[in-house]
Amino acid sequence: MAKRVGIMGGTFDPPHLAHLRISEEAREAFRLECALFIPAADPPHKQGRPITPYHHRYRMTELAIAGNDAFSISDMEKRREGPSYSLLTIQELAAPGDKELYFITGMDSINELHTWYHPKELLSLCHFIGTTRPGDPVDQSALQRDFGALAKNIDFLEVPGLEISSTDIRERVRRGRSIRYLVPQAVERYIREEGLYT
Ligand code: ATP
Ligand code: MG
């Protein structure tokens, strides 16, 4: 049987407990051998706001996954030029053809998938797992309309909804509020030591 690999893409500005939890839920539910965290170097959907330099986001993600043998990190989107299109990443990972790829996301990402770079091609190369995200209900009819038969490659996974976002965490830091128990302790420490988001 082909090895099942989870792909956890994100901006991770910063990585938080919901990123870890949905990856763990997906790993267990879909019997994934591992989950590969891939910080986006130049996220196509976040052109509007300043993003924390890649090396900080990479380091925080590394700290966040430490201690979980099934989780690893790749800098492949940094090694590539131009916007970090998931299609190019998945094409690169799918090339050896010996594994089944499962792109792990929250439902907000599934609902926006039609705006991604060549989403149909992407859907033909990997499965998507859309996990529960509070405030982002699934719109099945839109998925049918946008992707037709390829919509079957989107799986839904009910997980305990965690209302955590990087946006909210950045805002809390900016206001001098606590982010304890929203991010791993090592990430909290890194944000403090590096003076991020102030
Ligand atoms: P931002 O607020 O900056 O957009 P974020 O919290 O949405 O940050 P991202 O790095 O944008 O985090 O998200 C990476 C992936 O993790 C996306 O697929 C997103 O849907 C998913 N995700 C993030 N937070 C949650 C959450 N609380 N529940 C479910 N999925 C989530
Ligand atoms: Mg987001």
Which helices and strands occur, and which strands form pairs?
Blueprint: E1 3-10, H1 17-29, E2 34-39, H2 54-65, E3 71-73, H3 86-94, E4 99-106, H4 107-112, H5 119-125, E5 127-131, H6 140-147, E6 154-157, H7 166-174, H8 185-194
Parallel strand pairs: 1-2, 1-4, 2-3, 4-5, 5-6
Helix pairs in contact: 2-8, 3-5
Bound molecules: adenosine-5'-triphosphate and magnesium ion (MG).
CATH topology: Rossmann fold
Highest CATH level, the class: Alpha Beta
Query: What small-molecule ligands were found?
Result: adenosine-5'-triphosphate, magnesium ion
Count of domain modules: 1
Strand content: 15-25%
Arithmetic mean of pLDDT: 96
The stretches of 5 or more residues where confidence is low (pLDDT under 50) are: none
Question: SSE order, as H and E?
Answer: EHEHEHEHHEHEHH
What's the multimeric state?
single chain
Straight-line N-to-C gap: 48 Å
Q: CATH superfamily, please?
A: HUPs
Helix count from the secondary structure assignment: 8
Principal-axis shape: globular
